């Protein structure tokens, strides 16, 4: 009798399973958040990077409502732009601005809004911007792609308002998305100096997140195509070395068969040793095909040529991102008649920028010497800028905050802030050598008498 009962019960269960309606699941969507968190003419290339990425997603068939663009939008119509209403990412002069839908402009391009968009928090977006705006309204079946092109310092991505995003903050947001089932796979591409420091020793390998960075945790990212003859005296870098590589590669790849890992290795090869792209997190995602994150390739849908054109005879030029303000002025000056009125104005800006840089150098040198004494040679201090170990956040975070508060003209002046931030590897090293109180006291001493710093201790 028991056997019969078991069999009957088993048959009943099988029958129920066979007749039960299938659980409804919606097809997974692809979402993209594309961010250029810098403005001004010398940061032209960062907006161009994002605009071209937008074009690549649209050609992949991703609907506009699933693509969110944050960009200051001050270069297409800039007085200095000889091609009004157009933006180019390289010497081929292909307009990447045409048709771009920019969702967040001007002062709404900030860390707070970025976080709200990524978390799908519509109320927080409205509180931050004063209006309703698009968000990443993703679920557990969806793939989410985030791209940021900007400046950076050790452990930070910079933002327009100076309220920079730390690696801790970014990874806390990633953890929120993971715990709330906001993605199937999450991919982040970051093109900033020290981009690897946003993920190294922080990003887990088992939460479905894959990050690719323009460089490692201790070195600079680069901009290229900086001296186009077509721009004449207003030449500026047209794109990031890493960004130009991955976007153009994407536009020429068969996304159904090319993997994310292939794109990474292409970007690494194209970097020519200037920077060292890195991968972090769940590296198995690198084996997935590009169609999962960027949509289908244009060549599979329509005969449209978007492959990069042969480079012109113009010499390739490159600039480390933290030197963009200075080097752009220098390049422009070299293209002008020496005795022209415009050259005099640019030369004055260049000398003023050099002065700001010297004051930033002096602050970092004085800080290191206050801790190390005479043993802190200039060679040692320069070496420390790009050679440092893990970030001790319990020290580094309050010290960086103290530097920002005590030296606002160094940390919030566009012409020098990224140059100064690129020296914060020294602070990382010092935090691994002395206690926080000692370093905070040294910070105050180094600020005394420096024109970029307040002369009263906070």
From TrEMBL:
One of its GO terms (cellular component) is vacuole. GO terms for biological process: proteolysis involved in protein catabolic process; vacuolar protein processing. It comes from Elysia marginata. It comes from the Eukaryota. GO terms for molecular function: cysteine-type endopeptidase activity. This is Vacuolar-processing enzyme. Residues 1-24 form the signal peptide. Keywords: Signal. Belongs to the peptidase C13 family. CDD domains: legumain_C.
């Amino acid at each position: 009798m028991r056997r019969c009962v078991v069999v009957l019960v088993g048959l009943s269960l099988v029958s129920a399973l066979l007749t039960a309606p299938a659980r409804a699941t919606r097809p997974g969507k692809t979402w993209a958040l594309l961010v250029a968190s810098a403005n001004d003419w010398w940061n032209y290339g960062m907006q161009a990077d994002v605009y071209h990425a937008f074009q690549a997603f649209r050609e992949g068939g991703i609907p506009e409502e699933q693509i969110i663009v944050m960009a200051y939008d001050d270069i297409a119509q800039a007085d200095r732009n000889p091609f009004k209403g157009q933006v180019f990412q390289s010497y081929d002069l292909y307009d990447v601005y045409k048709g771009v839908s920019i969702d967040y402009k001007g002062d709404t391009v900030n860390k707070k809004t970025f976080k709200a968009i990524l978390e799908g928090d519509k109320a927080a977006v409205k509180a931050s911007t004063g209006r309703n705006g698009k968000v990443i309204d993703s679920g557990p079946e969806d793939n989410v792609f985030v791209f940021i092109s900007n400046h950076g310092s050790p452990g930070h991505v910079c933002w327009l308002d100076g309220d920079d995003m730390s690696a801790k903050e970014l990874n806390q947001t990633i953890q929120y998305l993971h715990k709330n089932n906001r993605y199937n796979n999450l991919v982040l591409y970051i093109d900033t100096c020290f981009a690897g420091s946003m993920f190294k020793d922080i990003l887990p390998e088992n939460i479905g997140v894959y990050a690719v960075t323009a460089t490692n945790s201790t070195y600079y990212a680069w901009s290229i195509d900086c001296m186009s003859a077509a721009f004449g005296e207003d030449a500026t870098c047209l794109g990031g070395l890493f960004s130009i590589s991955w976007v153009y590669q994407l536009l020429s790849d068969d996304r159904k068969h090319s993997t994310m890992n292939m794109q990474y290795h292409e970007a690494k090869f194209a970097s020519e040793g200037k920077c060292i792209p890195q991968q972090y997190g769940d590296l198995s995602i690198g084996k997935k095909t590009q169609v999962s994150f960027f949509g289908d390739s244009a060549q599979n849908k329509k005969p449209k040529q978007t492959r990069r054109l042969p480079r012109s005879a113009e010499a390739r030029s490159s600039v480390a991102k933290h030197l963009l303000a200075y080097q752009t002025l220098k390049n422009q000056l070299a293209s002008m008649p020496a005795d022209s009125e415009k050259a005099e104005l640019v030369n004055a800006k260049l000398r003023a920028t050099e002065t700001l840089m010297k004051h930033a150098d002096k602050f970092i040198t004085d800080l290191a010497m206050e801790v190390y004494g005479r043993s802190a040679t200039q060679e040692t201090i320069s070496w420390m800028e790009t050679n440092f170990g893990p970030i001790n956040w319990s020290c580094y975070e309050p010290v960086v905050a103290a530097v920002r508060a005590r030296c606002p003209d160094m940390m919030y002046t566009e012409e020098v802030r990224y140059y100064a931030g690129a020296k914060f590897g020294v602070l990382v090293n010092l935090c691994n050598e002395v206690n926080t109180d000692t370093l905070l006291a040294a910070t105050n001493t180094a600020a005394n008498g420096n024109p970029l710093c307040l002369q009263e201790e906070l």
